[in-house]
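Hi support team,

I submitted a single chain yesterday and got back a structure, but I'm not sure I'm reading the C-alpha cell output correctly. Could someone confirm the output below corresponds to the sequence I sent? I've pasted both exactly as they appear in my results page.

Thanks,
R.
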Amino acid sequence: MFKEYRRQDLNNPEGWELTLKSTGFFWLKVFFDPRFKMIKKNLSGPILDVGCGRGDWVKFLSSAGYKTSGLDYSRAMIDSCIAANDQSEFICADLRAMPFDSESFNAIISWGVIEHDENGPTAALREFYRVLSRGGKILVTVPVDSIWQRRSSQISFGKNLENSNFFQYFFTQDELCNFCRLSGFEVKQWGYLSRPHPALVFPRLYNMNNKFLNRILQALSLLARAEKANMIYCLAQKV
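Hi R., thanks for writing in. Yes, this is the structure output for that exact sequence:
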C-alpha cells in the first residue's frame, strides 16, 4: 500500500462535509455507472451504504426498490440526509463499530472509504463481515496503487508535505483482495472500476482546475489504457 498525504484538515468529519457535495444530474449519471450494474446483478436488500456522505446512493437505491440505509461519521451530513429523506434510515457512527446487530444486512456498499484509516482497512472489513448475513456481499472501492496514481498525487499534493497528514492508502488489486480474504470473505470479482481518469492521464493539465479544459481532457482520456483508471473494486461474499 502507498500512503498519500494531504492537508491536515481534510480527513475528518468537518473536512468531508465541505468536500462532498451532491452531484448534479446524479440520477441520470448513475444509470451508466458500473457500480449500479454490479448492484443490480449481485446484491439484494437490505443494503447498507457505509460512508454515505450526502446520501445520494441511499436515496437512489431506495427509489429503485432496494431497502437501503446509510451510515457516516459526519453528524452534519447525516442530519442533512435525515432532513431531506423520511423513507430511509441514516445513522451517524464509526464504521469500525457500527450500532447494528450481527447479520443485519444482505449487502454493504462502500465507495472510497476504507482507505482512510491509517491503521489499514481490516477493522472496517471485519465489522462489515459481522453485520452481514450469511451469504451476504460487500462491494467496496478504493484508489488503485499505480505509477500514474502516484504521479498524479505528487503533482497535486506533494508540494506541502510538511503541513500534511495521512489522507488515504492506494491499493493494488492483490492487496485489496487479500484484505477481504483475511477478513473472512470469499472474493468473487475484482477489477478497475471506471474508465481512464484524466487526473492520471494528464495530471499537470488536469491540476489547473479549468472546467472547460477538464471536459476536453476527460474525452481524450478515453483513448488511454484501462490501467489509468483511478479506482478499483472488490466484490466479496460472507461464507
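A quick pointer for reading it: Residues 5 and 166 are 5 Å apart (CA to CA). Let us know if anything else looks off.

Best,
Support desk
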